Amino acid sequence: MGFILIGLLVLGTHGYESMYGYLVIYFLLMFSILGLAYLDWGAKDIFLVELGLYHNTNKILAFSWGVIFLSIAGIPPLSGFFSKWLMIVLLADNGYLLTILVALLVSAIGAGYYLRVVKINYFQKQSSYMI
Question: What is this structure's pTM?
């Protein structure tokens, strides 16, 4: 949400264009997550830790989960990186240096949460949950 507000901070066509570009990429990624969740789990209740070592059972869906969450985290060369990069460049062009630092810090903290899904998907052993 903060990156969307950056587009409103910089009033003008460049701010609105960057904001809409970020929104389009973000919504596509969110719909991808919802689609993968529907394909993977259907109607049953499942927890995030149930993705543990998921790449052993279904490599294509595990790869899809990984790419989507790496993109949301802003890892280059994926689409999430470019959407965040456009917002940072927009701030730099308009002289909002402190806001750039805050945006980078918050983005790095958020990336830790998104990278956790990739870690669970590829490196964590099977869940010990009893369903």
Answer: 0.83
